[in-house]
Amino acid sequence: MINKLIQRIIKLEAPIVVGLDPMLSYVPQHLLAQGYKEKGENLEGAAEAIWLYNKGIIDAIYDLVPAVKPQIAMYEQFGIEGLKAYTKTIDYAKQKGLIVIGDVKRGDIGSTSAAYATGHLGKVTIGDKDYRGFDEDFITVNPYLGSDGIIPFIDVCKQEKKGLFILVKTSNPSSGEFQDQLIKERPLYELVGEQVAKWGDLFMGDSYSYIGAVVGATYPEIGKELRKLMPKTFILVPGYGAQGGKAEDLKYYFDKDGLGAIINSSRGIIAAYKQPKYEAYKEEAYADASRQAVLDMKEDLKKAWVKN
Ligand SMILES: O=C(O)c1cc(=O)[nH]c(=O)n1[C@@H]1O[C@H](COP(=O)(O)O)[C@@H](O)[C@H]1O
C-alpha cells in the first residue's frame, strides 16, 4: 500500500490527504433535511446526513488526491449509527480508487492491540470463514505503550500489505508537555522517531517503510530534524490550514526527491464553503468549494514540494 500511495502522489502531483472529519454543523441544510426525512431527526438521521455529505465530497475530489483520512471520533459521536457511516465512507472511498487512512489512534497492551489490528486492518475468523471489520489501508497508532503495543499492528500490516502512521510529534499546542521532555538530554519525540525508524525496518516497501510517522505541520523545525532522523519513514503531516501550518514551513518534511510526506487538511477542505475565500459557493455547492480548496492547496504546496 505504501508503494501505491507513493505512485498515486507522483501521478496526481498531490501529496495531499483530505481529512473526512464531519461535524454536524458543517453539513448543509439540504443534506440534513434529507437525512432527517429518510431516517428521523435522531442519531440515525444525523449519521445519514454525514454520509451524504462525505459522499458529495468524495465525488468532488477523488480524481485529485491519492487518499482520504476519516477521523473515527467524528463518527463515534453518533454511536453505532456513526460507525456505520464510517464504514460506508471507507467502502465508498475505496470504490472510487482512494487510499484510506483510518485516523483511529489506537495502541494498548499486546493482546488488545492485536484485536484492534484485526478489526481495522486484518480479518477475523468466524467458523470457517474470514471477515473484515473496517478494512482501512493504513491507520494511525499511538506508541505510548512501547514495542509490545506496536508489534501486533506491524504483524497484521505484513500479512495484509497495509501500513501505519505512528504518532511522533503531534500538531496540538500542548504536544510539548510530554513529547518535548528531555531524556538523557534528548527530546522524547526524537527517541520515538528513532524507534519508529527501527520498527520501519521490519516492513520496508520499495523506497519507504510501510510503518510511517505522524509529525505535525505546526512545528517545522522539529519536522526538519525528524525528517533527517527517519530517512525511510513516510510522514503524515496534519496541522496545515485550520491549525495554522503553512506550505512554506513544510519544505523540509519532504526529501530531496520531493517525496516522503503527505499533508492532511480536514476542515480547510471539507468546510471550505464556510470560509470567506469561498463565499461565492453557496451551501448547495459545498462540494465544488471543497474541490476548489484542494486545487488551491495543491498550488500552495508547490512552495514546499520542490526538490530540496
Ligand atoms: O493523527 C492525526 O491525523 C493528527 C495528529 C496530529 O498531531 N494532529 C492532528 O490534527 N491530527 C488529526 O488531523 C486532523 C486535522 O484536522 P484539521 O485541523 O481540520 O485540518 C484531525 O483529524 C486530527 O485528529
DSSP strand content: 15-25%
Uncertain segments are none
Main sheet? 8 strands, parallel, barrel
Order of helices and strands: HEHHEHHEHEEEHEHEEHEHEEHH
Structural class: alpha/beta
Number of helices: 12
For the secondary structure, the number of strands is 12
> How much helical structure, as a percent, in the residues?
40-55%
Shape, please? globular
Assign the CATH architecture: Alpha-Beta Barrel
Determine the CATH superfamily.
Answer: Aldolase class I
Strand order of the largest sheet: 1-2-3-6-7-10-11-12
Mean pLDDT across all residues, rounded?
96
GO biological process, one term: 'de novo' pyrimidine nucleobase biosynthetic process
GO molecular function: orotidine-5'-phosphate decarboxylase activity
Active site: 105 (proton donor)
Catalytic activity: orotidine 5'-phosphate + H(+) = UMP + CO2
Tell me what the structure shows.
With 308 residues, the protein is α/β, with parallel strands linked by helices. It has one domain (2-301): TIM Barrel. The chain is built from twelve helices and twelve strands. It has helices at 2-12, 29-39, 43-61, 72-76, 79-95, 110-120, 147-160, 176-179, 188-201, 220-229, 267-270, 286-301; strands spanning 16-20, 67-70, 99-106, 123-126, 129-132, 138-141, 163-169, 182-183, 186-187, 211-215, 235-237, 261-265. An eight-stranded parallel beta barrel has the order 1-2-3-6-7-10-11-12, surrounded by seven helices. Strands 4-5 form a two-stranded antiparallel ribbon. Strands 8-9 form a two-stranded antiparallel sheet. Strand 6 (138-141), helix 7 and strand 7 (163-169) form a beta-alpha-beta unit. It binds orotidine-5'-monophosphate.
